[in-house]
């Protein structure tokens, strides 16, 4: 019998890579998708096959993190061995514009998942991964940040993630649920949403290179982030749920770079000078910023044997390679059209 996993947020960056990884490992994978008036399954199209096919191992279900009844019904019907809660309104800047919705998906959503898991766990053991975030550290108490560094959240998103973190630990203690928090530092990829800064930069730089765009407008260029590759990080999520004991783990590279340095890597790779194209737009400033994130993943390394394999420069280059192809098809279709 293959193991069953349920993923919330399967249509997102991490959900798509995690689904690929679990399918490779022989899991039956179930994912929750939100009903939308247009298709929102682009990132998983390549692994989806008709569920009527006898080889089908990926199954999608409509649902929403804010609908606890729906989540409980799905969890009790599917009976997953592992539940990965990756769904969220995950954009920090947007969380200032939509704080209540952000808290509903991130905080109440996590509680809904834990409640569903608690009910299943009474009849069949299940394990839960909660997508916690380095944003929880917020204002810097110490660097590098570890599992023991206090949280000082600086946005509605981060406040909601702190709640979800503590609620996950509480369900572990109160109900003996195998529940883990992965405190993941920023991780990026060619599948990163285009409004997050790294992808915004690689998309714009490659379009500028091909003459499809003239300027790139950004906010604060001085913030420092510990950027890793999403594919490395989903492996870490899975490793947490395979360990004998549940726990909380930082996943990070241990290196930090400013947005300016990421601009250097991207534009230099394309033989361009970013200073000629980048302008500042205060619209992208946040009411409260997180200035510096730098993680220490020693616990994950020592206990799980997890290590990141991709440097920030390699990450920027692989994203540029991907986005250059995208820009080339865009240029071609504008010529043909
Ligand atoms: P994405 O924004 O790429 O994906 C978010 C996913 O959540 C999408 O599938 C989205 O669906 C889904 N979603 C949003 N709202 C709801 C809802 N109300 N009900 C059900 N599903 C919903 O995020 P990432 O893949 O980058 O991140 C995955 C998780 O890890 C998130 O919880 C994020 O907060 C957290 N995290 C991410 C880090 C990173 O650097 N990427 C670092 C640390 C934590 P749809 O496609 O329909 O919008
Ligand atoms: P972050 O990622 O807020 O760290 O959250 P994001 O890429 O949005 O911002 C990183 C830094 O870049 C600065 N910045 C800009 N950011 C955006 N989005 N757009 C801009 O134009 C811009 N200009 C400068 C920001 O001010 C910030 O300092 C991500 C998300 O994936 C969260 O869900 C996750 O929890 C954390 O990473 C860890």
Automatic annotation (TrEMBL):
It catalyses: GDP-alpha-D-mannose = GDP-4-dehydro-alpha-D-rhamnose + H2O. It holds the Pfam family GDP_Man_Dehyd. It comes from the Bacteria. Gene3D superfamilies: NAD(P)-binding Rossmann-like Domain, UDP-galactose 4-epimerase, domain 1. Its EC number is 4.2.1.47. InterPro entries: GDP_Man_deHydtase, NAD(P)-bd_dom, NAD(P)-bd_dom_sf. Belongs to the NAD(P)-dependent epimerase/dehydratase family. GDP-mannose 4,6-dehydratase subfamily. Catalyzes the conversion of GDP-D-mannose to GDP-4-dehydro-6-deoxy-D-mannose. This is GDP-mannose 4,6-dehydratase.
């Amino acid at each position: 019998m293959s193991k069953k996993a349920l993923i919330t947020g399967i249509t997102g960056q991490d959900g798509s890579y995690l689904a690929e990884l679990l399918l490779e490992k022989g899991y039956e994978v179930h994912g929750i998708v939100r009903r939308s008036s247009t298709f929102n399954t682009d990132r998983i199209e390549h692994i989806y096959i008709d569920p009527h096919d006898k080889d089908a191992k990926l199954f999608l279900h409509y649902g929403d993190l804010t609908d606890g009844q729906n989540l409980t019904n799905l969890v009790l019907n599917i009976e997953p061995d592992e539940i990965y809660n990756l769904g969220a309104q995950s954009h920090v800047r947007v969380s200032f514009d939509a704080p209540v919705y952000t808290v509903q998906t991130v905080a109440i959503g996590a509680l809904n998942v834990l409640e569903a898991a608690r009910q299943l766990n009474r009849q069949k053991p299940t394990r839960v991964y909660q997508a916690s975030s380095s944003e929880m550290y917020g204002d810097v108490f110490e660097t590098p940040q570890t599992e023991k560094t206090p949280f000082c959240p600086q946005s509605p998103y981060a406040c909601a993630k702190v709640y979800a973190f503590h609620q996950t630990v509480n369900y572990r203690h109160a109900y003996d649920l195998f529940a883990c928090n992965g405190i993941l530092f920023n991780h990026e990829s060619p599948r990163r949403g285009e409004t997050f800064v790294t992808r915004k930069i690689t998309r714009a730089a490659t379009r500028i290179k091909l003459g499809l765009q003239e300027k790139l407008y950004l906010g604060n260029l001085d913030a420092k982030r510990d950027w890793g590759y999403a594919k490395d990080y989903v492996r870490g999520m899975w490793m947490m749920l395979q360990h004998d004991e549940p726990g909380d783990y930082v996943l990070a590279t241990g290196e930090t770079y400013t947005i300016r340095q990421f601009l250097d890597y991207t534009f230099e790779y394309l033989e361009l000078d970013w200073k000629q194209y980048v302008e500042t737009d205060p619209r992208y400033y946040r009411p409260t910023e997180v200035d510096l994130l730098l993680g220490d993943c020693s616990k994950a390394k020592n206990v799980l044997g997890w290590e990141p394999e991709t440097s920030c420069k390699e990450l920027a280059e692989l994203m540029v390679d991907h986005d250059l192809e995208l820009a080339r098809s865009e240029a071609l279709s504008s010529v043909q059209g």
